[in-house]
Amino acid sequence: MIARESRFIAWFALALLAFGGGYLLWGPAWLPWDVRAGAPFGQSLGILAAVLMLASLAYVSVRRSREAAPSKPRAQLFHTLAGTVAVVLAVLHSHAALGAWSALVLLSALALLATGLYGRVVSPGRLGDAFGRSAAPYAAVTSDAGPEMAALVEDKRVLLAALDPDADEGRFVLRTHHWTGRPAQALRYWRLGRRERRLLAANPASAAGEIGLAERLWRRLHLVFAALCVAGIAAHVVTTVFFAGYVADGREITWWHLAEW
User: Fold this and answer.
1) pTM of the entire structure?
2) Residues 10, 122 contacting (CB under 8 angstroms)
3) pLDDT tens, 75-90?
């Protein structure tokens, strides 16, 4: 069963996408303003989309901050809602035009939205089913892990004594202050954790096979598309503001800009 918050997010996204579809289909005929991307209203949509997209990135610092941990649920909800609105506004700003290089930014934004909604709405239920079916095998992995795993856990405990003496290895998570305060030790600990996950997944008693490919990949893809989207937004802003003439390529420059190179 989908949680109430996840249902709200799903309906919120569907409503926004439906509104966006209506704007794209009937906006040019019914609305009294110029709906082109370079017109004042269209450019304002693009600016607001970029601001919301960047604001949603604040969740990254909250997610890895010990001090901000109590705010994580609210920050996570804001991250999802603001990101959804930003992507829909970006679609409206571009008017779904796929004929220019900036279409790559739009496609990255849509992929970012799709992976994010999958991770917030669909994946939790699928992971819950996997853990529910496979609760017993997880206990067996720790009891029959072998000498390599035992040595690796001991290495983690020794390193953790220097990285965060008050932490418990079984529940420790690397946070922002670990990376900024002791980056070398944090990187070593992260590498040990990655090795540990590989050993656990390879153990015959592991329930890793119960977790689908989408659950293992969606977050990585989400981060990749986020990086592409931010880089694309930066390039789009720089070219349209400082190289408006190049972007227009002989057409009329209808948007706010600083130079016409």
Assistant:
1) 0.81
2) no
3) 999 999 999 999 999 9
| Helix intervals (H) in 70-211 | 72-94, 103-117, 123-133, 135-143, 147-163, 176-181, 183-202
Q: Which residues of 209-245 are buried (b: 16+ CB within 10 A; e: fewer)?
A: ebbeeebeebeebbeebbebbbebbeebeebbeeebe
**Separation CA 147–CA 106 (nearest Å):** 49
Report pLDDT for 223: 93
- Angle (CA) 206-207-213 rounded to 5° is 120
Higher-confidence position of 137 and 22: 22
What burial class does residue 196 get, using C-beta atoms within 10 Å of its C-beta: 0-12 exposed, 13-18 middle, 19+ buried? middle
Phi, psi of 60 (to 5 degrees): -60, -45
In angstroms, the CA 160 to CA 194 distance is: 15
- pLDDT at site 216: 80
Mean pLDDT score of the chain: 84
pLDDT at position 55 over 90: yes
pLDDT given for residue 137 in this prediction: 47
